[in-house]
Specification:
Blueprint lengths: L10 E4 L4 H12 L5 E4 L4 H8 L3 E4 L12 E4 L8 H9 L3 E3 H9 L3 E6 L4 H14 L5 E3 L11 E2 L5 E5 L14 E4 L13 H13 L6 E5 L3 H10 L6 E6 L6 E9 L2 E8 L2 E7 L4 H16 L4 H8 L8 E8 L2 E6 L4 H14 L4 E5 L4 H15 L4 E4 L16 H9 L4 E3 L6 H8 L5 E5 L7 H13 L1
Parallel strand pairs: 1-2, 1-4, 2-3, 4-5, 6-9, 6-10, 7-9, 10-11, 11-12, 12-13, 17-21, 18-19, 18-21, 19-20
Antiparallel strand pairs: 7-8, 13-14, 14-15, 16-17
Helix pairs in contact: 1-4, 5-8, 5-9, 6-7, 8-9, 10-11, 11-12, 13-14
């Protein structure tokens, strides 16, 4: 691709409605760029972009590229035969990867990049909300909406830019942050990484991009993160701050106490104990909050102020988001699609639940299912009962022999009560029939399983009436 990330005065985004792309389009539109783009379908996000003046087409066609387009922005999900991408190359329009565009937007700001196999969106969101609460008005780009369509990005007047740094396609190598967070390092994205060694090398490259004198905030608890810390220890000009429950952590989590759907966190920082509230349940999210606290302090934000401000964070869409309650059944949406995320969310909900925990899980990607089906099944054993849908393919073609039955078999070996449902439209009625008052029901996965929440609530209402 041509290196033309600086030429963004009239960008065209292919797949503009996606979580990552829409945020960049929003920031550029607010900055005065003439933004256009295309997406596969209408959405609330597309409508929000149109309200900002963006010209958005539904469907992909060569004629969607306006005259005067300065560059075409793509993500790694865009196929090489996309007609708009082909038209851009024929017309000599520079093609810019999403990560290059984000790097350009961060230019001239104090960049804070959040990386890790899990927890990036939540941690980035915590920082965006809490820094905003303190009046610092940061710019930010997040892989999910905070509370409404289009809230995944903001062009702020402050000097800080907080960004979610995606390791899946190595695009986080493009950023040069002053502070970087690495929450965890695990094997994922099997289409792009063949081994843990490749994962470590990729994260080492990311850490090497931290500006001289900058800070790496890294987990002291996760095995992969500790290995990364050992590999980068002693690099000149790099400050390393470890975070976690481990005794040798620089910022130590002393306790996490569940308070229903919130947590009270006690942390030791600079020799002093601080207690603050995280308005999302579970140890996983509490540790994300402490990483956010340590990163903000590294930027010079007073710890006491930031700890209090983190309490104003109330969640992000699809991260244990309460969708509603009908007939005593709460329906909660979870983006978890990797076994570690699934386990963390189920353990968090288990702590908050007074009744049963039910799950409808939609596996995401054939390659991930092929590699991690056993671990996914084991995670589902934490629920009282689960329903497993067919695999959501996203950008992938099917792999022979790889179906959701691999997960179902693994779950049953782990002692789980699990049911297969191959017809997506039949799932709401099935789940409404399973649920009873006092249950917590999770819609879980990175695909369109999120759309089932309102339908399940409607079915519950029909049954109750």
């Amino acid at each position: 691709m041509n290196d033309a990330a600086h030429d963004l005065h009239a960008p065209h985004f292919i797949g503009i409605g996606g979580a990552g792309m829409s945020g960049l389009a929003k920031i550029l539109a607010v900055r005065g760029a003439k933004v256009s783009g295309s997406d596969a379908k209408e959405s609330e996000t597309v409508l929000a972009l149109r309200e900002l003046g963006a010209e958005v087409h539904i469907g992909h066609a060569a004629e969607n590229l306006p005259a005067g387009t300065s560059s075409v922005v793509v993500s790694s999900a865009i196929r090489t035969d996309n007609p708009e991408l082909a038209a851009a190359r024929e017309r000599g329009i520079p093609v810019v990867h999403r990560s290059d565009a984000l790097a350009a937007l961060m230019g001239g700001r104090r960049a804070l990049a959040v990386a890790g196999t899990h927890g990036k969106t939540t941690t980035t969101s915590m920082l965006a909300v809490s820094l905003g609460e303190l009046g610092l008005d940061p710019s930010y780009a997040i892989g999910g909406d905070l509370d409404a369509p289009g809230s995944n990005a903001h062009h702020g007047t402050g000097e800080i830019f907080v960004a979610e740094a995606d390791e899946s396609d190595r695009s986080f190598h493009k950023y040069a942050p002053e502070v970087a967070i690495v929450l965890n390092v695990e094997l994922d994205h099997h289409a792009n990484y063949a081994s843990m060694e490749e994962i470590y090398e990729s994260f080492e490259t990311f850490v090497g991009r931290i500006v001289p004198g900058g800070t790496l905030v890294v987990s002291a608890d996760h095995e992969g993160a500790r290995e990364l810390t050992a590999r980068v220890a002693g690099r000149p000009g790099l400050n390393v701050v470890t975070v976690g429950a481990a005794e040798d952590a620089d910022v130590r989590v002393r306790s996490v106490v569940a308070r229903g759907m919130t947590s009270e966190v006690t942390v030791e920082l600079d020799g002093a104990e601080r207690v603050f509230t995280v308005s999302v349940p579970g140890r996983h999210y509490a540790h994300n909050a402490v990483s956010a606290l340590a990163a903000g302090v590294a930027l010079g934000v007073p710890a006491a102020d930031l700890a209090k401000a983190i309490g104003s964070y109330t969640g992000v869409r699809r991260r244990l988001q309460l969708k509603g309650e009908v007939a005593g059944v709460q329906v909660i949406d979870s983006y978890a699609h990797h076994p570690t995320e699934m386990t963390a969310d189920l353990e968090a909900i288990r702590e908050a639940a007074t009744g049963r925990v039910l799950v409808v899980f939609q596996p995401h990607l054939f390659s991930r299912t092929q590699q991690l089906a056993e671990e996914m099944g084991q995670a589902l054993a934490l629920a009282d009962a689960s329903v497993v849908l067919d695999i959501y393919p996203a950008r992938e073609d099917p792999i022979p022999g790889v179906t959701s039955e691999l997960i179902i078999d693994a779950a049953r070996r782990a002692g789980a009560d699990v049911t297969a449902e191959h017809f997506f439209a039949a799932a709401p009625a099935l789940l409404a029939g399973l649920a009873r008052p006092g249950d917590l029901l999770l819609t879980m996965g990175a695909g369109d399983v999120t759309n089932l929440g309102p339908e399940i609530l409607a079915r519950l209402a029909d049954v109750a009436s």
